[in-house]
Specification:
The chain has 251 residues and is α/β, with parallel strands linked by helices. 32% of the residues lie in helices and 28% in strands. The protein has helices spanning 26-35, 70-78, 83-87, 99-102, 122-138, 151-155, 157-168, 197-200, 237-250, and strands spanning 15-20, 42-46, 55-60, 63-69, 109-112, 142-149, 172-178, 190-193, 202-208, 217-225, 228-234. InterPro entries: DICT_dom, Uncharacterised_Vng0742h.
């Protein structure tokens, strides 16, 4: 068994993100196209009478399954860079996940980091921070997060701030990675260190609340080559619980 087993139940579905009645400048559309240019998700524009301008539809087999204002997609991803998260300039209270992005759950992505892409990896960063916010808002349950190197928690001010808040909350907080940093005693988290591929190559944030009907959420990604990530996110309680149980048992 390995983390790769959880990828067998997700697929590269043929979905479309459709910008309806665009009025925003063309560069915004180009950013959206660039964000998904390596994925199976088609990005297109349409003019539809009597529909609100600058609305993004998520379309599956001709059926609209979710929608969001384009401004939400801009403010949450397109006009954001990863440095805002690393430095902590963008706090958890500012993290929102537009409905059309959230609804891309259980879709398999291959995403590139810098310098191959300036934006693709930001999808994973944004979803990770969103799950951390869900945990803090819920104030119970267990969160399990991997950093590849545990020192990243200390090196990235924004990440340290988030996990200091989680450590001080009632959320049972577990962190995973190569053990090149030890949390100070006042940092109330449980550290899991190791050198195997699943410690070195995995990026996950998995939150299981105490209540069965609470906001179960997980991001799971594996670095398949330097700077290239194969990943997905899910809000399915059964799938999230299965991933969490694997991490608890195997890592």
């Amino acid at each position: 068994m390995s983390l790769e087993q959880f990828f067998q139940s997700v697929e590269r579905r043929d979905l479309s993100l459709v910008v309806v009645n665009r009025e925003t400048p063309r560069p915004i559309q180009s950013m959206l196209e660039g964000l998904f240019e390596q994925q199976s998700i088609e990005i297109r524009q349409e003019q539809i009478p009597d529909e609100a301008a600058d609305t993004v539809y998520l379309v599956d087999d001709g059926k609209v399954i979710e929608s969001s204002p384009l401004t939400e997609v801009q403010e949450s991803i397109l006009l954001v860079n990863s440095d805002l998260y690393i430095t902590g300039a963008r706090g958890l209270s500012e993290i929102e996940l537009p409905d059309v992005i959230r609804a891309l759950e259980d879709v398999r992505f291959t995403l590139r980091g810098y310098p191959e892409s300036h934006k693709e990896k930001l999808l994973l960063i944004t979803v990770s921070r969103y799950i951390e916010r869900l945990a803090l808002d819920t104030m119970n349950g267990t969160i399990r997060s991997s950093f590849q190197r545990l020192s990243r928690i200390n090196d990235e001010q924004g990440t340290r701030t988030v996990y200091e808040k989680l450590a001080a909350s009632p959320v049972d907080t577990h962190v995973y990675g190569i053990p090149d940093w030890t949390p100070p005693p006042e940092f109330d988290i449980t550290m899991h260190g190791g050198w195997s591929d699943e410690f070195r190559d995995a990026w996950f944030v998995v939150f299981v609340p105490d209540a069965d009907d609470g906001p179960h959420s997980a991001l799971l990604s594996l670095e398949t080559s330097p700077g290239v990530w194969d990943g997905f996110w899910t809000f399915d309680p059964e799938r999230v619980t299965d991933i969490a149980q694997y991490l608890q048992r195997e890592l």
